[in-house]
Design brief:
The complex is a heterodimer of chains A (about 500) and B (about 260). By secondary structure, chain A is α+β, with helices and mostly antiparallel strands. Chain A is about 35% helix and about 15% strand. Chain A is built from 16 helices and 14 strands. Chain B has helices at about 1-10, 45-50, 75-80, 135-145, 180-190, 200-205, 235-245, and strands at about 35, 55-60, 65-70, 85-90, 105, 125-130, 155-160, 170, 195-200, 225-230, 255, 260. The chains are: A alpha+beta (about 500), B alpha/beta (about 260).
Chain lengths: ~500, ~260
């Protein structure tokens, strides 16, 4: 992605950068809706003191890579949030952080920076009609019209019970029935993207790993791939192999955590304990392999910092964890009290999932057959293709099943990786090119992770954009809460497997 | 449900006996903070300081190296960068201390002569945790404390939902601006006597994540801190050691930046 016209790097799909004017933005975005492509994100970049450039990143059909629309603007741009609702939060963030106004945005409230930290969300425009949640163009969550005398309002958080991440939630409910719901996130916004600016590209990896700990590999992987795209650098085979191995180990411990947490919310206490125990065992394998329970400090632009030595212990350890996981998930699948709470809970219809940008296991549980590992392969995934889990029921139960299937697919993939390990060097020199840019994508445990990286004339990072899967899925999640009930809320939230750190950055 | 009861009984107890002498802390493979060996340092080239992403290593004007473990995220970059092998990887992760200065190592600096005064609190401990902008790594390890292996309850230590019942406020993250007020409110709601523990390198010093437009440089400017525990993140055993140290049930390992056995 050094320039629009350059040949694609071997084994990496093409990324096309196209200049586009604001006048055709809306019509082009509408045109995209019929092609099967998906607008993934928009980010802003300051190219001069008074000049802003918007970048629209489009995931093309499988095998066809990515397209980036480059759009120079003044202080305003047309909003695409009605055409692609998944851009709504991106546009709100850009309005705050770059002073751009998106004309016609359906919900132009601040998102990331808290004007006040007290009370519920800031006042909103109350719409006259109560529309169904999840209508195709719904950029705004529906609200109750008229007098709200019988509606109880519950602002909850940002400090909540237990050891959980900080985030506030606003409920409007009658009895058990939730009429209104809105998450108020970004209490944890640390301005991580800005922390990259000015660093040399190799120094950014440890920072990427610390955006969201339980996605350390995914963040570092996507970041390194973006920097490698800037440098036209190709890591050696063994580095590709090692990265994929680490990424699948990350998926396993995350999904085991998910199962323990889901069992907790359904008050299946032994099931919770077993899930947490298996997660701990997986983290210990991580530590033995890399010295870090979160698989940190291994990746670097150009390959790996240290070689991975699975010795003769990793395969049998994984086999042991696998058989115990199989026994555990079989029990979960046969526990009526557990299944009763998941079936039909928090349905996310596939159109809503697509429009609101749901990704990863959440999207695959809503019938969207998308996975970057297969659709736009990277690393060693072309040689080690994963089995993609998909379910159509779109409820918490489907999200549970997708994760269970994915754990088993990851174990199988790790088996294949360990039986066919390429030898050789683990790192290529990766010197960035001045004024270059790159895009890196991976499918993390929670879904699509995209990094966009820009280098300046001194080969320093001038802009790093992070689109994390939790940012995408937090956008979609509220559409499953409206019109549900309070007792299912925690289960539904757990079934999404969200992190707040990844979303807030 | 009977299936689960049977399943649970058949699994038996997974709980470690640690910190009893015959127990296993389970962190044998975890890399901790690198150790500095001044006798191996050649000409004070400062490559380690350049490699350090958090400024934990500083070369003073005389060419002497100072290490602030309160800024260390155990990323191991200095270990890889040092041409003389003066920075070595280690399993030093139990870095909980009562005084911030005990995390600083310098060649001329002596370890503080007297141990820090203890809180003198030895009853069962109730903790209110507040996430002030962490990456979720500290939370992941704090949640692990209640898994069957560490089973924190057995040590008389509990997490409590309400600050009204809490003795200790355990804070993670560099303290984002949006979390300053909720954090102070949680602290104010605690009955006295009350104590505060900064958990993770972000909370101790801001490390990589603090100090931008949206966050402070750690907890020190917002609340009085009684226990400092750097680590990225501190593993469950490191958290337990710090809590037991606070309760005078384990010794403080680190003094003047030097790790004791």
């Amino acid at each position: 992605m050094i320039a629009a016209d350059q040949a694609p790097i071997a084994r990496s799909e093409p990324i096309r950068v196209i200049d586009i004017g604001t006048d055709v933005l809306v019509s082009n975005a509408q045109g995209l809706r019929t092609t099967g492509s998906r607008l993934k994100m928009v980010y802003a970049r300051r190219v001069a003191e008074d000049r802003i450039e918007l970048r629209y990143v489009i995931e093309e059909l499988p095998g066809a890579g990515f397209t980036v629309w480059r759009c120079a603007i003044g202080k305003t741009a047309p909003s695409l949030a009605d055409v692609w609702p998944l851009l709504s939060w991106d546009e709100r963030e850009i309005m705050e952080l770059y002073g751009v106004t998106f004309l016609g945005h359906p919900d132009p409230r601040p998102l990331v920076l808290h004007p006040t930290v007290e009370g519920g969300p800031v006042s909103r425009v109350v719409e006259e009609d109560v529309s169904e949640p999840g209508l195709r163009a719904a950029g705004v969550l529906p609200e109750i019209a008229g007098a709200k005398l019988d509606v109880q309002l519950l602002p909850f958080g940002p400090v909540r019970a237990g050891v959980v991440e900080s985030g506030a939630f606003f409920f409007g409910y009658v009895g058990e029935h939730i009429l209104e719901y809105e998450p108020q996130l970004f209490f944890k916004h640390r301005g991580m993207e800005a922390r990259f600016e000015g660093l040399p590209p190799e120094a950014g990896t440890v920072l990427a790993e610390r955006v969201s700990a339980v996605g350390s590999v995914a963040h570092a992987f996507a970041y390194c791939r973006a920097v490698e795209a800037c440098a036209s650098c190709m890591p050696p085979e063994r580095a590709h192999w090692g990265r994929v191995l680490l990424a699948e180990m990350e998926r396993i411990y995350n999904h085991l955590h998910f199962l323990g947490h889901l069992a907790d919310t359904t008050t299946l206490k032994v099931g919770q304990a077993e899930g947490m125990l298996l997660e701990e065992q997986a983290k210990r394998l991580n530590a033995r392999l890399t010295g870090s329970r979160f698989l940190r400090n291994m990746l670097t632009p150009g390959g790996l910092r240290r070689d991975i030595d699975p010795g003769d212990w990793l395969a049998p350890s994984l086999a042991q964890l696998r058989s115990r996981t199989e026994r555990y998930t079989k029990l979960l699948k046969h526990s009526d009290s557990f299944l009763d709470r998941l079936l039909t809970t928090g349905p996310l219809p596939s159109e809503v999932a697509f429009d609101q940008g749901a990704t990863g296991p959440v999207a695959r549980a809503s019938g969207l057959d998308r996975d970057l590992r297969r659709d736009h392969p990277y690393g060693a995934y072309d040689q080690f293709p994963p089995t993609i889990a998909k379910h159509d029921e779109a409820d918490a139960h489907a999200r549970f099943h997708v994760r269970v299937d994915e754990i088993m697919a990851s174990f199988a993939l790790l088996d294949a990786l360990l039986s066919r390990a390429p030898q050789g060097s683990i790192r290529e020199r990766c010197a960035g090119v001045p004024n270059s840019e790159g895009l890196g994508w991976v499918e993390g445990a929670r879904g699509a992770m995209v990094y966009a990286v820009h280098l300046d004339e001194r080969v320093r990072l001038s802009r790093v954009k992070i689109r994390s899967p939790s940012f995408s899925n937090w956008r979609a999640f509220p559409f499953t809460v409206q019109d549900s009930n309070m007792m299912d809320y925690a289960i539904n939230e757990a079934s999404f497997g969200l992190t707040i750190a990844g979303c807030d950055r | 449900m009977a299936l689960w009861t049977f399943f649970g009984l058949r699994q038996g107890s997974a709980t470690t006996r640690w910190p009893a002498p015959d127990g296993d802390d389970g962190q044998a493979d975890v890399l901790g903070m690198p150790r500095y060996h001044p006798e191996l340092c050649g000409d004070g080239c400062g490559v380690c300081a350049e490699a350090c992403p958090t400024g934990a290593i500083i070369v003073d004007p005389a060419g002497k190296i100072e290490v602030d473990y309160g800024r260390c995220i155990a990323c191991q970059l200095c270990v890889e960068a040092c041409p003389d092998g003066a920075m070595t990887a280690s399993g030093d992760w139990a870095f909980g201390v009562r005084r911030r200065e005990d995390l600083r190592w310098s060649e001329n600096g002596d370890a503080p002569a007297s141990p820090a005064p203890t809180a003198g609190y030895r009853r069962s401990l109730h903790i209110r945790h507040v996430d002030a902008g962490s990456c979720n790594g500290c939370e992941s390890e704090l949640q692990a404390l209640n898994n069957p292996i560490y089973n924190l309850h057995r040590l008389g230590i509990f997490f409590t939902p309400s600050p009204r019942f809490a003795d200790l406020l355990l804070v993670t993250g560099p303290v984002t601006n949006a979390m300053i007020e909720p954090l102070k409110a949680a602290y104010e709601a605690m009955p006295e006597p009350r104590w505060v523990m900064a958990t993770g390198t972000c909370a101790v010093s801001g490390a990589l994540t603090g100090g931008g437009y949206a966050a402070q440089r750690g907890l020190g400017d917002t609340l009085p801190v009684d226990v400092w525990l750097p680590g990225c993140p501190p593993n469950p055993a490191a958290i337990i050691e710090a809590l037991l140290m606070f309760l005078d049930r384990m010794p403080q390992r680190v003094r003047g930046g030097t790790y004791g056995e």
